[in-house]
Every structure is written in C-alpha cells, then in structure tokens.
Amino acid sequence: MRKSLIVLPAWNEAEALPSTIEKLQALPDEYELLVVDDGSTDDTPHIARNLIRRSRLPLHVVSLSSNSGIGAAVQTGYLFAVRQNRFDYVIQFDADGQHDASYIPTLVSTCEARGLDLCVGSRFSAGISEGFQSTWLRRLGIRFFARLISLLTGADVTDPTSGFRCAGVHAWRAFAERYPDDYPEPESLFWCARNGLKIGEVPVQMFSRQGGVSSIRSLRTAYYMVKVTLAILIDRFRPLERMDV
Amino acid sequence: MTAETLMLAGGVGAFAVTFYWVRSRQLREKYAVVWMTVASALLLMGVFPQVVMRLAEATRMAYSSMVLFLSLGVIYVFSMSVSLSLTRSRRSSVKLMQDLALTRYELDSLRERLALLEERVSGQ
C-alpha cells in the first residue's frame, strides 16, 4: 500500500493544533502524521503528545530543542521520512488550520497520475476564486515571485509561497539534504524547477489562520521580498544538480 | 590629544582587552592572533605616524581619509568573517538539533516498545 507522511511544522500552535489534527482524521489509513514542534514556548509539545493517543492515524511528534525557523522544521520532517524509509510521498501541511485536509488525496493522486515530483496547492490556480487569498500586498508579492520563477525557469506557477504541497520521493530526498532556512517555499520551488524536477499545481481553497502568529509579519514582509529574490537570483548561478538525468 | 596619541591608546587598550579575554578563555587564541595584529598595527601607527603619512602620500589621499579607509577595511574584513562564522555555526547547530530531535524520537519509540515487550514477558 502507498504510504504518505503529512508533516505539520508547529511553532506556538497550541490553540490550533488539536482541531487541525482532528480534521486530518478523515483521511484514509495510508497517511501518517508528524508534528515537528519548532521549539515552541507554549503548550504545543505537550498538546501534540496528548493527541497521539486520540489520533486514529499514526501520529509522531518530534521536538526541536530551540526555535530554528520554518525551513529547519520542515526539513526535519523530510529527514524523518529518510530515516523511516517507508514513505512514497511527504506532504507539508500548516498546523494553524489554514489548509483544507480534503485536498490532500487530490495532491497525492495528481503527483501520481502526472508523475510530478512536487505538487503545490495553489490559491490562484484556475478553478478557485473563493477562500482566504491573503492581503493585496502579499498577493502582489506572490505574483512577483510567480513571474520571477516562470521567467527564470519557464515553469508555470501561480502560488509559489504556498506551504501546502506534496513532494514525491526525488523531491523530499533532495529537500532532506538541502532546504532553505527561512521563507523556504519560493526558493525550494525554484530549485526544483531549475534542477529538472517536475512541478505542478492543484487548485485549493485555504482558510485564514485559526490561531498562533504568522512567520511573515508586517515589517518582515519587505525583508522577505528582498531575501527571497536575492536567494533565487543567486541560486541561478549555482551549478546545476539535474535530478531528471 | 593628537591622532597619534589616540592610536597609541587604542593599541594599548586593544592589547589589554585581547589579553584579558584570552586569559579568561572567552576568546580563542585563533582569533586573538588577529586582534593582536590589529592592536600592533594601531601601536605602530601611534609610534610611527609617518608610516600612515607616507602611505597617504603614496596613494594621494589625505591623512584622515587614509586612517578612515584603513579602519573601514579592518571593520569590513572582521564583520565578514563573523558573518561567515555565524552562517557555518547556524548550519551546524540546526543539523545537530535535527539529529538530536530525531534520535530522541527513535529512543522514545524504542523505550515504548521495550516496555511493551517487558509487559508481555512478565504477563506470560
């Protein structure tokens, strides 16, 4: 049977985590859940461990000893998959309740049917006009990154900042070795597209966060734009690591 | 106070501070060598101000501009080396934290399985 791991990076998500795990219980048995507690200072690790007994699907909890950023937390999930060596797909899913669990089987089946290495859940792809689509300023930034990545790689992407994605074995093994530190989604997407991994999108609807604090806040938005653009442009000059050869 | 006296005082101060940090093992000798070199350069410029003057003349710069240029050069080199060190240590500390977290998870899982096995054995 195909096995998939759902990685939930969680930093101070005590409020939203129980309902997020609850919503994931409707998924079929082929899924396992992994909460990566990113050095939370609230009750997140305690709550996550308590949820293990209540979860129908196998739930694992890994705790980083101090806050290391979203990139390191997600990469811990990919490293977990490498160590366990029994998963076909690794899905990144927000612990704050922004993502809709019912799209997960679609992401995985699209990966499988189209032979994708990375399938991104997109808020702006054709077919979805409802749901939470972020502020206009962020949408402008998202559009900018989408254009930049399309221009540099020829890949057709509409939501490069989406943290709702499904990685096939080539992608998640590569991510376990290298994954950007902070604001990793556009950069890792660019890396995949540039290095010959097949990427695609599935239209999804998202919700506003159910609790906790976003890792991208007001003043940091400007830093985010500059940092990610710089990272993408510099990555363009790194030697290729063709994954499709 | 002249610029030479300032440099002399700066050099002596830099020597003293470096010596203090190395003695209390808060600064590695590896870095102390570089800071001692900076302190020596300051002392040298304080005792022999004509060195900087000649350097300024040779590059057709004003004395003050030359001092500023040299200072900025030192600051740039040190700041860059600190940034490089921080990047490397951040990478290794994240890797260590990830390894620790995953190993702790595996250890806890093994402990749970062992406890279950012990329970079964003692029940038989």
Q: Can you describe this structure?
A:
The complex is a heterodimer of chains A (245) and B (124). In chain A, β2 (31-38), α2 and β3 (59-64) form a beta-alpha-beta unit. Chain A contains 8 helices and 7 strands; from the N terminus they run βαβαβαβαβαβααβα. The two termini of chain A are 28 Å apart. In chain A, α3 crosses α6, α5 runs parallel beside α8 (220-235) and α7 runs parallel beside α8 (220-235). Chain A is α/β, with parallel strands linked by helices and 245 residues long. Chain B is mainly α. Helix content of chain B is 90%, strand content 0%. Chain B is built from 4 helices and no strands. Chain B has helices at 3-23, 29-47, 49-58, 63-123. In chain B, α1 packs antiparallel against α2, α2 packs across α3 (49-58) and α3 (49-58) packs across α4 (63-123). Chain B is rod-shaped, with a radius of gyration of 27 Å. The interface between A and B is medium-sized, with 16 and 10 residues.
